[in-house]
Write a structure and sequence with these properties.
It is a single chain. Helix content is about 40%, strand content about 20%. The chain has about 325 residues and is of the alpha/beta class. The strands form two sheets. Strands 3-2-1-4-5-6-11-9-10 form a nine-stranded mixed beta sheet, sandwiched between helices. The chain has a two-stranded antiparallel sheet with strand order 7-8. Helix 5 crosses helix 7.
């Protein structure tokens, strides 16, 4: 049986690559896409989701989500990473992209979980505002979700501690209060953070092979990743780019590719360490312990990067040309 997925996203180049992987996979039924501010403005993120839906024949609903975090200031979209339009500044045909669900994203999530109890996985690859709003409005949905998979955070494994500050990853620091709310809710969360996403790199040769072999997606992915690859080359001297959001899809499809640790997770919400994600392993209680009594979640700490890249390539090249 296919895994029903609501994909919470701020597309975004790597978001789009992940979305297309979910669409191409025979193991995922992409039932909904909820948008959030982050890599692009909420208007551009939603337009991009609708454009991808139209261009590649997705059947998923699209619902507009939050354009501001719960508490902290919104900041500016990361156009220096994803381009002014969020898709590497490729030409997006002008048009009135239709098909937006009338419900706000968090209401769409609530209604969907109630309609399909125990069946839907939430995969969130942007700020966690929509998920936090949903569980705050209706805490009962925590018992209805199949799984929550998050791309975000950094716990120090494999030497990876942050990409916005020395200790904070972009999605988490973008709305730390929402992230802490999601991590401490009693529902099954798996965090796919920089600890593993920085271990997997799509090189220029890999993208060239994808371009050649994937009739459906290759040329499009090649075009949108030119801006993204250039950013990584300028900032990190890389040949290629890290595989962030697609790693969350990989976990949903093939969790055996990952090694995980379990424990309560908290997010620092203020001060110089704002956005820092901290995993407490074990059951020892301390005199001051804000982790005590919180649900144990799963944090990915190792990945079979070769296996992940092989799976992405295999999935994206087996789909018939559109």
């Amino acid at each position: 049986m296919k895994r029903k997925v609501i994909f919470d996203t701020d597309p975004g180049i790597d978001d789009t690559m992940a979305m297309l992987w979910a669409h191409a996979s025979s193991q995922i039924e992409l039932v909904g896409i909820t948008t959030v501010f982050g890599n692009a403005t909420i208007e551009n993120a939603t337009r991009n989701a609708l454009y991808i839906k139209q261009r590649f024949g997705l059947t998923a609903d699209v619902a507009v989500g939050a354009d501001t975090p719960l508490v902290v200031a919104a900041g500016e979209p990361t156009t220096f990473v994803h381009g002014d339009n969020g898709l590497g500044d490729i030409e997006i045909p002008a048009g009135d992209y239709q098909g937006i669900d009338k419900r706000a994203a968090h209401d769409y999530i609530i209604d969907s979980l109630k309609a399909h109890p125990g069946e839907i996985t939430l995969i969130a690859v942007g700020r966690l505002t929509n998920l936090a709003l949903a569980v705050e409005k209706d805490p009962s949905i925590a018992s209805l979700v199949k799984e929550v998979i998050i791309m975000g955070g950094a716990f120090g494994y494999n030497g990876h501690t942050g990409n916005v500050t020395p200790f904070a990853e972009a999605n988490i620091i973008g709305d730390p209060h929402a992230a802490d709310r999601v991590m401490t809710t009693d529902w099954p969360v798996t965090v796919v953070g920089l600890d593993v996403t920085h271990q997997t790199v799509m090189t220029s040769d890999y993208i060239d092979r994808l371009r050649m072999n994937s009739a459906s997606y290759g040329e499009f992915i090649y075009q949108i990743t030119r801006f993204y690859a250039d950013f990584h080359k300028k900032v990190a001297g890389m040949d290629g780019f890290y595989v962030h959001d697609s790693s969350a899809i990989a976990y949903a499809i093939a969790p055996e590719l990952f090694k995980v640790k379990e424990g309560a997770v908290r997010v620092i919400t203020e001060g110089p360490a704002m956005g820092h994600t901290l995993l407490k392993e074990g059951d020892k209680r301390y005199p001051i312990d804000e982790w005590s009594g919180k649900p144990k979640q799963r944090v990915c700490v190792e990945v079979d990067d070769k296996g992940l890249l092989e799976l992405y390539m295999a999935t994206m090249t087996q789909r018939a040309a559109l």
